[in-house]
Amino acid sequence: MQHGIRRIVLDVLKLRDPPLPELAMHLSSMPNIEGVNISLVEIDQNTESVKIAIEGNDINIKQIQELMKDHGAVIHSIDEVAVGKKIVTI
Amino acid sequence: MEIMREFLGKVRLYLQITHIGGIVRRYFVMNGFDGSMTALGVILGAWIVGVENPNIVVMTGLGACLALGVSGFFGAYITEKAERRRHLKNLEDAILTNLEDSLHKDATTFAPAFASLINGLSPVLMAITSLSPFLLAMAGLVPIWTSYTASLALTLATLFMLGVYLGRVAQENVLLYGIQMLTAGVVIAVIVFILGGA
User: Fold this and answer.
1) Selected residues 1-60 of chain B with any CB under 8 Å from a CB in chain A
2) What is the pLDDT of residues A38-61, one digit of tens each?
3) Share of chain B above pLDDT 90, in %
4) ipTM of the shown complex
5) Of B16, B19, B99, the CB nearest to A72
6) Which residues from chain B sit within 8 angstroms of residue A13, using beta carbons?
7) Which of B30, B40, B101, B179 has the most CB within a 10 Å radius?
8) What integer is the mean pLDDT of B99-119?
9) What are the residue boundaries of the structural domains of chain A, listed by start?
10) Span B181-185, mean pLDDT?
11) Model confidence pTM above 0.90
C-alpha cells in the first residue's frame, strides 16, 4: 500500500500577517493533513522565518505551495521528508 | 448560511491583515460627527428663520450630508488605495516575491472599498437620524415645531453616543467623552441662536 508523503518539514519566510495560528489552521484544514506544527525561528519588522512540520497521509506538496503563496509565504527549503509505512526519524 | 460564514471569515482575515479596524473606527466617528453637526446647523438655521415646510429642512439637510457622504467615499477610497498599494510594495520588497495572487492583494483591494463605504455612509446615517422627525412631519404625523425639538434632542443624543463610543474605544470614562462631543453640539446651537438674534 502506497502511503505517499507522511511528514514534511519546511523552512518558510512569511509575512507577519496573517499570524501563525491563522496559517496553521488553514494548513490543517487541507485534505490528507492530520497535524501541523509551526515554530518561530526569527522575527523581523515585516517578516517571520518559521519551521513548519506537517504530518498526514499522502501530503500534496503542490497544494501546500499554493496555500503558502496565497498567504504571502515563500518556501525556502524542504528540510525533511518522511514517506512509507512508518515515519522514520533521524 | 455557509457562504455567509465563509464571507465573514474572509472579511475578518482581511481586517486582520490590513489592520484597518482602527482607521475605519476613526473614519466612522469623524465623518459621522461631521454629518451630525451639518444636520444640526441646517436644522437650527431653519428653526431660527422659521421654516414651516419640513420638505425644505429634509432636502437641505440630506443634500448637504449626501455631499459629505460622496466626498467622504471618494476621498477615503483614493487615499486608502494609495496607502495600501504603497504598503503592498513594501511587503513585496520585504519578502522578495510578487504578492499578486495572494490574500494580501485581495485585502489591499478590500480595505479601500470598506473604508470608503464606512466613511461615505456614516454622515448620511447620522443625518437621516437627525432629520427623521421631519420625515414624520412630512407624513403629517407630527407638527413641524415638535419635529424641531425632537430633532435637536436626537442630534445631541447622537453626538453624545458618538462620544460614548469613543470612550469605550479608549477604555476611559464614557460619560466624559460623551459630554465633550455634546459640548460641540451645544456650542453650535448657541452660536446659531446668537446669530439669529433669538
Assistant:
1) 13, 16-17, 19
2) 999 999 988 999 999 999 999 999
3) 76
4) 0.78
5) B99
6) 95
7) B40
8) 93
9) 5-83
10) 92
11) no
User: How confident is the model at residue A86, as a pLDDT?
Assistant: 83
Torsion angle (degrees, nearest 10) of CA A56, A60, A66, A69: 50
CB B53 within 8 A of CB B76: no
- Secondary structure E strands in A1-90: 5-15, 33-43, 47-56, 73-83
Average pLDDT taken over every residue of chain B: 92
Domain tally for chain B?
1
Residues of A in contact with B103 (CB under 8 A): 18, 70-72
Please indicate if any CB of chain B lies within 8 Å of the CB of A24.
no
**B104 in reach of chain A (CB within 8 A):** yes
User: What pLDDT was estimated at residue B198?
Assistant: 55
Q: What is the SS3 assignment for B3-45? A: HHHHHHHHHHHHHHHHCCHHHHHHHHHHHHHHHHHHHHHHHHH
Q: How many residues in chain A?
A: 90
Cell of B168: 469605550
B49-89, pLDDT tens digit by residue?
Answer: 989 999 999 999 999 999 999 999 999 999 999 999 999 99
Range of the structural domain that residue B69 is part of: 2-195
A67 touches chain B (CB under 8 A): no
CATH code of the domain occupying A5-83: 3.30.70.1340
Among the listed residues A42, A64, A44, the one whose alpha carbon sits nearest the alpha carbon of residue A53: A64
- Residue A2: pLDDT band (50, 70, 90) is low
- Give A19→chain B minimum CA distance, Å: 8
Q: How far is A5 from chain B (nearest CA, A)?
A: 26
